[in-house]
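Dear colleague,

Thank you for sharing your sequence with our group. We've completed the structure prediction you requested, and as agreed, I am returning the results in plain text so they can be pasted directly into your records. Please verify that the sequence below matches your submission; if there's any discrepancy, let me know and we will rerun it promptly.
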Amino acid sequence: MTYVDGFLVAVPTANKEQYREHAEGALPMFKRYGATRMVEGWGDDVPRGEVNDLYGAVQAKDDETVLFSWIEYPDKATRDAAYKQMEADPAMKELGEMPFDGKRMVWSGFEMLHEEGKGDKPGYVDGVVLPVPKDRKEEYRNFCRMADAAFREQGATRIVDGWGDDLMVGKQTDFHRATHRKDDETVVFSWIEWPDKATRDAGWAALLQDPRLSGHDRPFDGKRMMFGGFVPVVDA
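Please find the predicted structure tokens below.
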């Protein structure tokens, strides 16, 4: 079953091209060790939140842009083996200095909870991160089935919902603090792929009026949901 490593990163806006080149340089190594896809989403429409948001998750500065990124593997075993192999690969050192503050990078591993659609490379992506009670996993999966079908009706090509599995604890930032996670909750990492931003904007305008979403008893605290719109700068 597909396994996902999800990332949130704050990158100096001036380093956009440098970051893209760095990510593309790392891509062959990830692919060599079993990754099936790597996507780097550059922040485009990322709102501020009242409780939390993606900026706070990575302690982004005024001159930085938030990235929502992920790496897909065929299964967790492949992902775990890949990290062990990459640690010993000299190519890691050859990548050079990261064009961002790695201490503020947030990342973790997620098992596939639900997937809808099999789209081509998207022109635009919505990224979502939120805490969900562990004992409401099946309720949340059913919510995803309903919501994802609605997104597909409005033009989304693929929706993936990842359930927190290997949640890392960081010294400065992590998903636990970003979502204000409680002891009885896990973290969900999800994204929605659209053919372009225009389709996404029109889709959301319709979805906000859709009673399946607005009137549903959600099995999570929507006030702590973090989200934003991103333009893929690497997708391979």
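Summary note from our side: The beta strands are 3-12, 37-45, 64-73, 106-116, 124-133, 158-167, 185-194, 226-235.

Kind regards,
the structure core
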